[in-house]
Design goal:
- By secondary structure, this protein is mainly α.
- Among the domains are: 153 residues, Leucine-rich Repeat Variant (Alpha Horseshoe); 78 residues, no CATH class; 99 residues.
- The chain is built from 34 helices and 2 strands.
- The protein has a two-stranded antiparallel ribbon with strand order 1-2.
Length: 789
């Protein structure tokens, strides 16, 4: 029965590993099966599964936080087994439970921060923490190492960290800095004091110069994370590590140390050196950089001195051989030289050609006939081209024909020797690159590095084509052209996501160019072409105007077929919205042009005083594109049709212009002299109708911006004669509907439509007779109507 349950659990685990999104459905169903009363095999499986679940990097933090609250009871029973049942829990179960607790501690802390009534949840987590801290010193080595990791996680959470964005607390790192002083459950002072005590407990391992290599290595690994992420306690940690002496077991000499002690001394010393070097590499300019470098060199020389077989009175051997060869390689090289001549002496003999190295040979090695390694490392591209043109003819003229013939013969001989070599196995190729000798001394870092290098080379050798098959392919005829198989077609959702991503990146680039323009000023070019015929790609990639023109034309000129001949081209609806509907009535879920228009509007409004030129250029392009579409639908012979108007034949321009004006008028401020900005906008857009002027007149609803609206209407009347009548109508509407605007609009109407003022004067005169009012906005002098003020 137990084996069948384990089989089902392993299948569920494999499914979760393949599809991490189903962890929230699987974990609640697994918890009853792996509880405290279940057999040992099921408890071991359950503890390992929970530790693996919360350590998964692909599972979202939100899902982990929800599941963390559900597993607290199970973890409590794992660590409380002796108090509940009276028997010790299995070490493997406790070790996995401690790992799981280290993973969920920050999640429970964040849940407690955001939830006011979470005292019970935090009490469970505090109980688990108390049990782990109480029993870890007397537990086995594996449990103790996991407990060190748990303590480091608690210190990291209960120590103030950096706040990257105070407005987005859910995206900041979980630390004590997120906790408010008046939290009903958590007390910042208590948590910070507890973290300080736990840090002293970790540092006590190094302060006591512990000889347990496993505990010291685990402690240094945990402290490295704290030094990186918690600058407030990094100085204290570094001072403790600098004072730590990993060679405490070597005080009595090498002869009195056993094999276990030698391995422990080497392991702890090299781990300490790696810790100091990583800290120095991460921040080379820190105040303690000199002390870190000095301590690293001191540990290195001390380690060499301790394990030197010549004794302290003699000069120790250097770390690396002077000539680049160790003793074994030097012996083999000297045995292979003819006449007993040393390899170093042969290299300086005239006409000497070094042999090819064993294993695979590159073209550079095949044609290199000089034994000097510095010549092989020189890159010829470092010489300027004009010097090469001067040197090559002189060198070719000075070459000795005999030496050139000898060099060609040497290359041919080396190539023939290489082709006659027996094919080697993959293991031999690995040994040729990494070396096949085993070292007597144990080096954990070196072992891991060599093993990883051997694995990489074995994988590359396994992927190499078979020599026989390659020869058959070479002799089978001409090589056929390689055609890359086309990928699967993109779905609509994929196209939408890729389009949105591209749009975000392009506008991000545009924002960076805006920063450079503010810092350096606009780039001026005399040959730049203005108008509709300029190239959108001018300065693309480095010029802000080029990017803006490209985006605007992507939005305005790429969404319809001017001739209307394509079957799937966009056409006009009844409401003239030709950019949102295809033939057949199917609506598009995502339209790139619409998305660009909306993003352009947002981009302009983020800094509308500086980017008003972008809005003007965009609306001019919209009007131009709509005009082209209108002319393509109506032939020139159709002379009876009236000229195009905004609301009927310029759909995209109308919608974009009104939306931009509605958004812009929300931010206009008369105190910031934004009236000039409004006048510039109205003067440079290509077409204005009654809808635009209605929105301009609506600005006068704000008493502080009445003068801005009046000035805009006066400018249109004086300098845009085609819309003079519409502007005067808008001024008359303000006169009749807005009492605050009468003084400003009265000056306009006094010149362009005085009859309105006469009517107003008559009505006010009647009102004065009937009601005795004193309101007087206009007066008539010598038959002329004048406005007050």
């Amino acid at each position: 029965m137990g084996s069948q349950i384990l089989k089902s659990l392993n299948e569920a685990r494999n499914i979760c590993l393949a599809t991490p999104s189903i962890y929230p459905q699987v974990v609640p169903g697994v918890l009853p099966v792996v509880g405290q009363q279940q057999p040992l095999e099921l408890r071991r499986w359950g503890a390992d599964f929970l530790a693996e679940t919360f350590a998964s990097p692909v599972l979202p933090a939100e899902d982990k936080q929800k599941m963390a609250l559900a597993v607290l009871d199970t973890l409590t029973k794992y660590v409380h087994r002796k108090e509940d049942i009276g028997e010790e829990e299995d070490a493997a179960v406790v070790k996995s439970a401690v790992q799981c607790a280290a993973s969920i501690y920050p999640l429970v802390f964040r849940h407690t921060l955001s939830t006011q009534d979470s005292a019970e949840v935090w009490a469970k987590m505090a109980g688990i923490k108390s049990d782990i801290l109480r029993t870890m010193d007397s537990a086995l080595a594996g449990v103790r190492i996991c407990g060190i990791k748990f303590i480091a996680r608690v210190v990291q959470v209960q120590t103030p960290g950096l706040i990257s964005d105070p407005r987005r607390p859910e995206q900041n790192e979980i630390s004590l800095a997120l906790l408010s002083r008046d939290h009903p459950v958590l007390r910042p002072s208590q948590l910070e004091a507890e973290a300080s005590g736990l840090l002293d407990r970790l540092l006590g391992v190094l302060q006591d110069n512990s000889s347990d290599a496993l505990v010291v290595t685990a402690t240094l690994g945990a402290l490295s994370v704290l030094v990186q992420r918690r600058p407030s306690i990094s100085s204290k940690i570094l001072m403790t590590v600098l004072n730590y002496n990993p060679l405490v077991l070597a005080v009595n000499g090498l002869a009195k140390m056993g094999g276990k002690e030698r391995v422990a001394v080497k392991s702890t010393t090299r781990t300490t050196m790696s810790f100091l070097l990583n800290v120095l590499k991460r921040n080379p300019n820190q105040p303690m950089a000199a002390r870190l470098q000095q301590r690293t060199e001191q540990l290195r020389h001390s380690l060499i001195e301790v394990f030197s077989e010549t004794g302290p009175g003699k000069r120790p051997a250097p770390d690396e051989p002077i000539d680049g060869l160790d003793n074994h390689k030097r012996m083999r090289t000297e045995q292979g030289t003819p006449n007993g001549m040393m390899a170093q002496q042969q290299q300086f003999q005239p006409g000497y050609i070094p042999p090819l190295p064993p294993g695979p040979v590159s073209y550079a090695q095949l044609f290199t006939l000089n034994a000097d390694s510095s010549a092989a490392g020189f890159h010829v591209e470092a010489i300027p081209l004009h010097l090469v043109n001067q040197l090559v003819p002189a060198l070719l003229a000075s070459i000795d024909q005999q030496r050139l013939t000898a060099a060609i013969t040497a290359v041919q001989t080396r190539f023939l020797e290489y082709t006659k070599r027996p094919p080697g196995t993959a293991l031999q190729a690995v040994r040729a690159v990494t070396g096949g000798e085993e070292e007597d001394d144990y080096d954990p870092e070196g072992t891991v590095a060599v093993a990883g290098e051997e694995a990489q080379i074995m994988n590359r050798v396994d992927m190499m084509p078979i020599e026989g098959a390659q020869q058959q392919q070479d002799s089978g005829g001409p090589v056929q052209p390689f055609v890359l198989e086309a990928g699967p077609p993109l779905t609509g959702r994929e196209r939408e996501e890729i389009s949105k991503l591209a749009l975000t990146r392009v506008f991000g680039t545009l924002a960076e160019l805006d920063k450079s323009v503010k810092a350096k000023g606009p780039k001026k070019t005399d040959s730049e072409t203005k108008g509709f015929n300029r190239l959108a790609s001018t300065g693309l990639g480095q010029d802000r105007d080029g990017w803006v023109a490209l985006l605007i034309r992507l939005a305005t000129r790429s969404t319809f077929d001017l001739n209307g001949e394509a079957e799937e081209s966009t056409v006009k609806q009844e409401n003239d919205d030709r950019s949102l509907t295809k033939r057949g009535g199917a609506s598009l879920p995502f339209d790139l042009a619409t998305a660009i228009r909306q993003t352009l509007l947002n981009y302009v409004m983020e800094d509308f005083r500086r980017r008003i030129d972008v809005a003007i250029a965009w609306l001019n392009e919209e009007w131009y594109s709509d005009r082209l579409a209108y002319l393509s639908r109506h032939t020139p012979q159709d002379s009876t049709r009236s000229p195009p108007t905004m609301s009927h034949d310029l759909p995209n321009y109308t919608r974009s212009c009104l939306l931009t004006l509605d958004t812009l008028t929300t931010y206009l401020d008369d105190r910031a002299k934004d009236g000039r900005l409004l006048i510039r906008f109205l003067s440079e857009i290509p077409e204005i109708d009654a809808q635009v002027l209605t929105r301009v007149a609506k600005i006068a609803d704000d008493p502080e911006r009445v003068q801005m609206a009046c000035q805009a209407l006066l400018y249109l009347i004086m300098f845009r004669p085609p819309v003079r009548g519409l502007a005067v109508d808008a001024a008359e509407g303000l006169w009749r509907g807005n009492e605050d605007a009468r003084v400003g609009v009265g000056k306009i109407l006094a010149k362009w439509r005085p009859e309105v003022l006469r009517e107003g004067l008559e009505e006010e005169g009647k009102g004065k007779v009937e009601g005795g009012g004193e309101v007087k906005a206009v007066e008539e002098v010598n038959g002329e109507v004048k406005a007050d003020g």
